[in-house]
Structures are given as structure tokens and as C-alpha cells.
Design brief:
Number of helices: 23
CATH superfamily of the largest domain: Aldolase class I
CATH class of the largest domain: Alpha Beta
Shape: elongated
Radius of gyration: 30 Å
Structural class: alpha/beta
Oligomer: single chain
Distance between the termini: 40 Å
């Protein structure tokens, strides 16, 4: 099925997969028993997964498998054995979040296409180009992007674009959400999100509302615009949903994608495109929860995208009839049956370019009445529950032939089995005999592209600093600040390294290092603003803290000569990821906030900062709480929301770049765990200040200095605090 636009269906079970194929999906994405972002779906066993791969290949479709979680070191060790049977069976692609896993799969499974998950938060061409160096062939960009941004990314990179067209929307940029993890221990980065964002919250004592519960996505009306933007794959969300939902939604997007492609061939434009009201009603009725919107393709955010109150009549489609089960998906084949007295029966069957041939019993001379060709054909066409049906079938006889019906049945069965095997053999792969041969030869030798790696090693960004500082720093206390008062208090308390937002002006103090903390989201409007600032940035700051790959790639473009460090959300969950950041010349990373002390010890954080205090960011969103609850005034600031337990969460508005950061309700406090933390030998103890006043900053800095520098036992001085994941970690 060679289509211009791929309809990509979700499948949480074999039933859903068959429903997707019956509805006309070109490809299906699903998870195995491990490493998928939908841990609670009916994910397929190894046997079922291999069977699913073989099934879709018979029908000319594809399967992409999700490995879109962050992987711990012990899991990285298991990844090869886990993927190998699927790789050998011909898996068409793997969807990945973890940069370490991207590198690993490229090395060990050289013929396997790797797709960048939306969990990687790719927001523009810079990030996509960076991943291209790793052999990435397809990007699932952040759902928050506009059609223009997607069009530009496609045109400038040449990578395949896979974009969501229907289904649930997350309020947070995918891959940047820690809300479920921090308040309930169920990590979205590990496929276990409990969706606390869907619950009601209050703003300033107003009536509780579902402030962060977005309406579901439905783009059937703007489908021509998506096609014209160059999107290669239309992705339907719903691996937790029922087969009836999958069938209905796939059927509609298949129908209308084909309709518009036909219109294009006829020389007509999108003005001729129409969606019938009956079809729209059927599509929306397949799953009713919070209403529908067209997502971010034409707007950055808005109150109209939010479902402030859940309707009482929500349903998931599970009670609907099952029309898809009555649809028999069979591939058309052609056959020639030759029966000649004294010779073995011969059947040749073909499907497209694939031909199979088999022989049966010797044909006997009829004692009485010879077999009638019409009867022979009728018997041979009984393909039953196989994946094939005859289109043409020629019966060639010579002499008065006779063959038992059972012999004809066996011949047909063997012919179809042989054809099936030949079709599947096209997709199967041999196990690679070489470790590290994952990409093109030059890529494997140089890490992530020969020229790129050479540039990084010799004169690339942060390279000298990486060499100078690796493993040589004594543990010190640093501070991340968001106001000038916090900066002054931290510096006055003896902090000698500060990370600060761009709007904070400062006068240098001796022996204090000043690092610019780059934005959490680095989209086109932000890039344009930073282009005007680059010369000042290079001169003003001692280094830069990055929070996304777009920032890194932008700095590389400018051959930034000073030190680059990475924040926690450039996740370093395993040795492979740690190696990759180091190869990029990143002098210091930040220890992952979802690993516990034992996992951090195994990982090794000697060249990483360890966050030991602060209200941790739990969501980064394009949506704006201020705009939803009141109106947009375009002024950056902080508001507070409360959950049903009256826990308060601060939300900072970054209006220059139009995103919100929501912080945990209680600060992380680990000063009394100083000795345990010091045993991990982090390069730096970082204190993250957000809402704290000047006096509080001074007090907290003193507490941590006493604990980490003077070895004093410091009990918590605040009423409510959290230990984060230092002891509990995430599953």
C-alpha cells in the first residue's frame, strides 16, 4: 500500500491491531512488554509481537514499536536481548526517547529505523538536525508546534514528520512532565503517568476547574492543510482505547486523506474538500470525554482548548457494535494449477512480485469421471481464514485427471504457506555480528558523524572545558536564581557559582561564576531574540546551562567557546546517555531527579550537579493558566494554583517565550542527607531558588554550607518539604 500520507494507528492489543488493518491503516505503533510509555496498555508478549509483525507484513503494512521511556543501566543491558527477536522478524521502526537508547540501537541494530519520540521535546529544525546525526530517520515533534514550524522542519531537514492528528493531548510538553512522578511516584518518563493534570485546581480562591485538562485533538477538518505542510505520517493517539475506537478513527482519516489526495490529482485545491456531517458525528461519537479542538496547529494556546469541566456522559466506545470484526482482510493472489496425468500436481501462486511454487501428489488417470476444471477451481478458491484470496486462478489439465480433494487442499495450504514465508523473508534480518556497527561506517567510527565529532573534539563548543574539568572539580555549592535579590543573597552567602535567568542584571564579584540558564523551550521566536543577544551572552557569562538540544545546536552554530552544562531535563539515566553528553563537549550534566541514591551511585555522578534543594519544576506547558483563568496581560509573573487537598503550586509565566513552568507544592530538602550525598561525590551541590525571598535564600545557603562544608547535622527548618526521589526513585 504505497500512499503519500501514512495513517498510523495505535494498538494496545492484537484486537486493536486487526481493527486498524481492517480500517485501512498503513502502519501501527504498539508496545512490547517493556520500555513503552503506556505501561498499563495490554502490551504484546514477545510471541504476539513477532506474530503481529508477520501479520502486518503479509498485508503490506508496517509496525513501529515504542521504546519511548528513559532506561536505567540495568535495562540498557537487557535492551539488546529484548529487541533482537523483533529486529530479526523485520520490525519496521522503533520509537525512542532516551538519547542513550538511540545511540545503543544505532550501534547494535544497524538496519532498524529509529524515530525520535515526542517525549524528546523536539521543537524546531535545530533539534531535529542534531538528532539526524544519530541516524534518526523520523521525528515526532512536540505536539505544541504550529503548521509553519512543522513545515519548516520538514523542508530544512528532509526528515520524515510524524504528527498527531487525533486523540488525547497532554497539557505539558511531552518529556517535560514530572507532576505524576513527584506527587505520586508514577513517572510519565517511565510510562506510568497517573494524569493528575486532569483533576480540578483553584486559582486565587475561585471555583475549582480542570485548568490543565485539554480537549481531545480532532483535525479531520484541516486535514488538507496538514498534508500540504508535508507531514508524512498522521498519528492517532489511543493505545489505551478499544478496538472500536481504533477502527472508526482510522477509517475516517483513511477515507478523507484519500479523498484529498484524489482531489490533488484532479488539480483541485483544499477548497473542494468536504467532511460530511454524518461522518463527523460518527468520528466524534467513537470517544466522548471532554470535547474536541484542532490542537496547536493554528494557535499557541487558549481557553477554548481547555475542558474546564468533564461532561457526565463521557464514554470510550467500548459499548458500540463491532463492524470491523466482520471485515475479512485478505490479500489478492494469482495462481496457476497444473494437473498432468503421471506427473505431480504443481501450484504456482504469486502476490505482487513474490512467487511461490510447490508440488503435490502424482496425478492419476481417472477410472471413471475425470475432475471437472470448474470443480477444481471452486475447491482451490476455498482459502478460508488465511490472509489471502485468489484474484485469478488458472486450471491447466492434461488428460483425464484425478486427484483427491484432500490432496488439492494440501497443495493449496502448502502453496499459501510457502508464499507467506517468502513475503516475510523480505523483511527478516540477520543478527549483526559486530557491536558498534549501528550506523554508517563513518558515523560509527566518530560517534555521531565524522565531521561533527571532529569539530566537537578539536574546537567545538565546550570541548576545552570538558577536558579541563572532567573529574577534577571538588564538590561545591551552586545556586540557581530567578531574581536579583536571590542572586545577591546567594553570592553574599559564599556561593561561587550561580545560574541565572537572562533578565537578571549583575555586577561581577570576585571568584563567582555566572552561568546563563537558557529557556526550557527554545522555539523560533526565542531563537530570533537570542540571535540579537549572542555577542552579549558570549561576553557577559562564564558559561551556559542548557535545557534542550535546540539550545545546544544553536550554540554550536555560533561556535560558542565557553563551558556548557546541561540541566536535569537533558536526561542522563544511563551510562550511554552520560557518554553521549560528554562526547558533545558538555562539561557537566545534572543528575536525574527520578533516580534514587543507589541508582545514582551505580550511574556515577562525579561529573554532575546534584540538586539538593528547591521547588522542582513539574510541568512546562505552552498552555497558560493566567490566560485560561482570567486573561493574558503579556506580563511575566507568578500565580498560585491549589489542588483538591489545598496543596499550592506556583506557576511562573515566561511571557517572552510564551510558556508556563509549574513547580512542586513543597521544596526538596536534603541538607540532613549531606553525608549520603557526599558519598556519591557529585561535582556540585545545587540549590534551586524560585519563590524564596532574599532572607530565605541566605538562610538556606547557610544551612547547606554548614551541612556540606562543615559537616554539621542540619535538621529541616521548614514545615513542609519533600525528599523527591532520593530514596524512593521510580519504577
Amino acid at each position: 500500500m504505497n500512499r503519500v500520507v501514512e495513517i498510523l494507528a495505535p494498538a494496545g492489543s492484537m484486537e486493536c491491531l486487526r481493527a486498524a488493518v481492517a480500517a485501512g491503516a498503513d502502519a501501527v505503533y504498539l508496545g512490547g512488554t517493556r520500555f513503552g510509555a503506556r505501561a498499563y496498555a495490554q502490551n504484546l508478549s514477545e510471541e504476539d509481537m513477532v506474530q503481529a509483525i508477520e501479520y502486518v507484513h503479509i498485508h503490506g503494512r508496517k509496525i513501529y514499536m515504542t521504546v519511548n521511556t528513559l532506561l536505567k543501566d540495568r535495562e540498557m543491558k537487557e535492551l539488546y536481548a529484548y529487541l533482537l527477536p523483533y529486529y530479526k522478524a523485520g520490525l519496521d521502526g522503533v520509537i525512542v526517547q532516551d538519547i542513550g537508547a538511540v545511540k545503543f540501537i544505532g550501534e547494535h541494530f544497524p538496519e532498524m529505523p529509529v524515530h525520535a519520540s515526542t517525549q524528546m521535546t523536539i521543537t524546531n529544525t535545530l533539534g531535529a538536525e542534531f538528532l539526524k546525526q544519530y541516524g534518526i530517520t523520523r521525528v515526532v515533534p512536540a505536539r505544541e508546534l504550529s503548521l509553519k514550524e512543522i513545515r519548516d522542519m520538514k523542508r530544512q531537514t528532509g526528515l520524515e514528520m510524524e504528527c498527531f492528528v487525533h486523540g488525547a493531548l497532554c497539557y505539558c510538553y511531552s518529556g517535560q512532565c514530572l507532576l505524576s512522578s513527584m506527587i505520586g511516584g508514577r513517572s510519565g518518563n517511565r510510562g506510568q503517568c497517573a494524569q493528575p493534570c486532569r483533576l480540578p485546581y483553584q486559582v486565587d480562591g475561585k471555583k475549582p476547574a480542570d485548568l490543565m485538562s485539554l480537549k481531545d485533538l480532532c483535525t479531520i477538518d484541516i486535514l488538507p492543510e496538514l498534508i500540504d505542510a508535508g507531514i508524512d505520517s498522521f498519528k492517532i493517539e489511543g493505545r489505551m482505547k478499544q478496538p472500536e475506537y481504533v477502527y472508526t478513527v482510522v477509517k475516517m482519516y483513511r477515507k478523507y486523506a484519500d479523498q484529498y489526495l484524489r482531489l490533488q490529482k484532479e488539480g483541485k485545491d483544499k477548497s473542494a474538500y468536504r467532511v460530511s456531517e454524518a461522518d463527523k458525528r460518527e468520528l466524534i461519537a467513537a470517544y466522548q470525554r471532554r470535547g474536541y479542538c484542532e490542537g496547536y496547529y493554528h494557535q499557541h494556546n487558549g481557553r477554548d482548548m481547555v475542558s474546564l469541566k468533564r461532561p457526565k456522559n463521557g464514554k470510550d466506545g467500548s459499548t458500540e457494535a463491532k463492524p470491523w470484526q466482520d471485515i475479512k482482510v485478505q490479500e489478492k493472489i494469482n495462481g496457476i494449477l497444473t494437473l498432468s496425468v503421471g506427473n505431480r500436481a504443481k501450484l504456482t501462486v504469486s502476490c505482487g512480485d513474490i512467487t511461490a511454487e510447490c508440488t503435490g501428489q502424482e496425478v492419476q488417470a481417472a477410472q471413471k469421471q475425470p475432475l471437472d476444471p470448474v470443480r477444481i477451481e471452486k475447491q482451490m478458491r476455498k482459502t478460508g481464514n488465511t490472509e489471502f484470496s485468489f484474484d485469478t486462478l488458472k486450471i491447466q489439465t492434461e488428460g483425464n485427471v484425478f486427484l483427491p480433494m484432500q490432496a488439492l487442499n494440501e497443495l493449496r495450504r502448502e502453496g499459501i504457506e510457502e508464499l507467506t514465508e517468502k513475503i516475510q523473508m523480505q523483511y527478516r534480518r540477520e543478527e549483526s555480528g559486530q557491536a558498534g556497527c549501528g550506523m554508517r561506517k563513518e558515523t560509527a567510527e566518530a560517534g555521531i558523524g565524522a565531521d561533527y565529532a571532529k569539530e566537537t573534539a578539536e574546537s567545538g563548543i565546550g570541548a576545552d572545558y570538558a577536558k579541563e574539568t572532567a573529574g577534577k572539580k571538588n564538590c561545591c555549592i551552586s545556586a540557581s536564581v530567578q531574581t536579583k535579590a536571590q542572586l545577591e543573597a546567594a553570592a553574599a552567602s559564599g556561593v561561587r557559582c550561580v545560574y541565572l535567568d537572562e533578565e537578571i542584571e549583575f555586577e561581577r564579584e570576585d571568584e563567582v561564576e555566572y552561568f546563563l540558564a537558557m529557556p526550557y523551550i527554545f522555539r523560533e521566536n526565542t531563537i530570533r531574540r537570542y540571535e540579537k543577544m549572542y555577542a552579549e551572552i558570549e561576553q557577559k557569562y562564564d558559561g551556559i546551562l542548557i535545557r534542550n538540544w535546540e539550545s545546544y545546536a544553536w550554540l554550536k552554530q555560533h561556535a560558542y567557546p565557553k563551558e556548557i552544562r546541561s540541566d536535569y531535563n537533558l536526561y542522563i539515566f544511563n551510562q550511554k546517555a552520560k557518554e553521549e553528553l560528554k562526547k558533545q563537549g558538555i562539561g557537566q550534566g545534572t543528575a536525574p531527579v527520578e533516580l534514587n541514591d543507589r541508582e545514582l551511585a551505580r550511574l556515577g555522578i562525579e561529573e554532575q550537579a546534584f540538586i539538593a534543594y528547591g521547588y522542582q519544576p513539574v510541568m512546562v506547558s505552552a498552555g497558560c493558566i493566567q490566560k485560561t483563568s482570567a486573561s493574558c496581560d503579556g506580563k511575566s509573573g507568578v500565580l498560585t494554583i491549589s489542588d483538591r487537598y489545598q496543596k499550592q503550586f506556583a506557576v511562573r509565566r515566561y511571557c517572552r517565550d510564551c510558556y508556563n513552568v509549574m513547580y512542586n507544592s513543597a521544596p526538596l530538602f536534603l541538607a540532613d542527607k549531606a553525608e549520603e550525598i557526599k558519598s556519591l561525590r557529585p561535582a556540585e551541590i545545587r540549590l534551586d531558588f524560585t519563590m524564596e525571598k532574599k532572607e530565605q535564600v541566605g538562610e538556606i545557603c547557610k544551612i547547606y554550607a554548614d551541612a556540606f562544608m562543615k559537616g554539621r547535622r542540619m535538621e529541616p527548618q521548614i514545615q513542609e518539604y519533600t525528599r523527591g526521589h532520593f530514596k524512593r526513585g521510580v519504577k
